[in-house]
Every structure is written in structure tokens, then in C-alpha cells.
Prior knowledge:
- This protein is an alpha/beta fold.
- The chain has one domain (4-312): NAD(P)-binding Rossmann-like Domain (Rossmann fold, 3-Layer(aba) Sandwich), CATH 3.40.50.720.
- It has ten helices and 13 strands.
- The strands form four sheets. It has a seven-stranded parallel β-sheet with strand order 3-2-1-4-5-6-11, sandwiched between helices. The chain has a two-stranded parallel sheet with strand order 7-10. Strands 8-13 form a two-stranded parallel ribbon.
- Helix 1 crosses helix 7 (216-228) and helix 6 packs parallel to helix 8 (247-258).
- The longest helix is centred in the middle third of the chain and has 21 residues, at 141-161.
- The termini are far apart.
- The model has no long low-confidence stretch (mean pLDDT 96).
- Residues 8-9, 11-15, 32-38, 53-55, 71-75, 89-90, 94, 112, 114-115, 170, 172-173 line the site of nicotinamide-adenine-dinucleotide (NAD).
Amino acid sequence: xxxxxxxxxxNGFLGSHIIDMALGNGIDVTVVDDFSTxxxxxxxxxxxxxxxxxxxxxxLLDRRFDFILHLAARPSPEDYLRxxxxxxxxxxxxxxxxxxxxxxxxxxxxxxxxSEVYGDPAVVPxxxxxxxxxxxxxxxxxYDESKRFSEALAKAFERTYGVDVRIERPFNVFGPRIxxxxxxxxxxxxxxxxxxxxxxxTVHGDGLQTRSYLFYTDWVxxxxxxxxEPSAKGAVLNIGSSEEITVIDLxxxxxxxxxxxxxxxxxxxxxxxxxxxxxxxxxxRELLRWKPEVSLDEGLERTMDWLREKREHGKL
Length: 316
Ligand SMILES: NC(=O)c1ccc[n+]([C@@H]2O[C@H](COP(=O)([O-])OP(=O)(O)OC[C@H]3O[C@@H](n4cnc5c(N)ncnc54)[C@H](O)[C@@H]3O)[C@@H](O)[C@H]2O)c1
């Protein structure tokens, strides 16, 4: 019998890519997604899509799956700052519901947490053993604290019911299908979009804050191995790159690579924006026998090609 997978948030950037991998492996996929942060449908016709908020999808309690991947969330800061309660709901009620279905199904449950659980870290590159420096009631808490709460819920289901729980913390993944537009656009697609359209690149604050970036194919490979690796049951893993780059250098690099005449302008710093962030991914490298294969430049080129093509076809 074909295996069955439920993916919450499956119509988004990362969800749609992991679904391609699942379909390629002969798995039947069901998505629950309210299309709140993704625009048009991004998954193939054979995927069953239930269009509603994950926290309301109680009818799924009657269904059984082999894998449950809980990705539904609002990960873009401008978006979650405007929608704090909706952001929390996918991580409290939504996570609880997905865990209940995993328990009833005896499924493997994979949760995409985030590097934001570390807040403004005192240790960089950040290992999983670092517990974080997070303001529990600050403006970002609707996202970072609710992700931390989801991790606690998942571990409580593991300890209470023995659910097979796997928690990953992605660090700034980018590539084709990531949203580039307006306030929702995350930094790489936003900068590329601004550079290609000759608009100024908008850097929050002085731009000396650092991040590390992972191309989506490396994320898919790590996540797929994580799902199937028997010794990874119960693990919490950083999935990211340790190559740290300042936001201002990233902006300059994108201007150079696109050949754009855009200038850089500085906008108000984001409140509680972490100053540095890069992954210590030693644990994932060892447990999954995985490492990032795509360089930042190659990933940027491939994302630029995708955005150029979208522009040429009038899809922006
Ligand atoms: N991309 C990254 O760099 C990154 C980094 C860290 C963590 N993550 C996590 O990975 C997951 C996927 O992120 P992404 O980059 O694909 O984002 P995305 O915005 O492209 O996808 C999220 C999807 O979830 C859906 N969604 C949002 N709230 C929902 C709700 N309440 N009910 C149902 N669907 C809902 C959206 O419509 C969208 O399709 C998220 O959990 C995010 O927190 C991503």
C-alpha cells in the first residue's frame, strides 16, 4: 500500500518542495493550508488540498497517515508582526491537532521549528545545546515563543504517548517559489526583486546584522534524510549553513551579481532583530551524513534566474 503524508502549510515555499520529493517517492500527499502567506496553488494536481487554517482542520482526526509534516506558519517578520494571534494559533492549536493525528495514526511527526528559537544568541555559530535568548513577551514572541512552545508540545507527546517526533530548526532557507513581493518578501528574494526592478535595496538598520543562508535543495535533502533515519527519532537538529554574512554585504553582492544600478538605502532597524545568526550544523552532518552542497553564489544565481523568468512571463 502507498504511504500517506499530511503536510500542513504544504502550499508554501518549503512545503511545495518537500511534496515534490514525496510524490517522486510514490507517496500520497494531503495538504492543509489556508493560503494566507502563499498566493496561487503551488502543488501538483494529484495532491489533495484542504484549504483552511490548520487549527480548524478537525476532520483530519478521522484520517490516518504515515508521516505528518507540520509546516503551517507565518515566518516572515513583517507579516507575523501584523498578525500575532493568527501566528500563534498555527503553533498552539495547530501543532496540538497535528500531534493528535500523529498519535492516532502512529505516524512520524516532523516539526519545522526555526532558528528564531535562539532569539539574539550569545553563541555563534549556534549549537542545538544553546537554549536561546528570547524576550517572552516582545514583539517577535508571537513567532519565536510560539515555535518554542510547539517544540515543548511535541516533546510532551513524545514523553507521554511515545510519538515519533523529529524537530528541525531551519536557518534562512531560500530559492525558487519563495515569496518576493511587498512586505512579505524575505531578505534574499526582496533584494533580488529590488535589484532587478532598479529599486533601492532596503536594508533595516546599519546592515551589520549577520545571517547564514541555505539553498532549498540542501534543506530538502536534509529533511528527507531526517524523516527516514532510524537513529534520528526524537532528535532536534539545526538545518542551516555556518557561513555568516552581513546583510549589507549580501545587498552589495546581489547588486554586483545582477549588474543592477540600484542603490542601497537604510530603513528603521527592526525591533529586537537578532544581531548575529549562523548554524552549527555538526549534529545534522553526523546524524544524517549530510552537508550543504550549494554555495551561496550558486543559490543566488538560481534564484535570480527564477525571478528573471517570472518577470519575463509577467508573473510579478
Ligand atoms: N524558509 C525559511 O527560511 C524558514 C526558516 C525557519 C523556519 N521555517 C519554517 O518552515 C515552515 C515553512 O516556511 P516557508 O518558508 O515555506 O513559508 P511559507 O510562508 O512559504 O509557507 C507557509 C505556508 O503555511 C501556510 N499557513 C500559514 N498559516 C497557516 C495556518 N494557520 N493554517 C494553514 N496554513 C497556514 C501559508 O499559506 C503557506 O502556504 C514554517 O513553519 C516556517 O516557520 C522556514
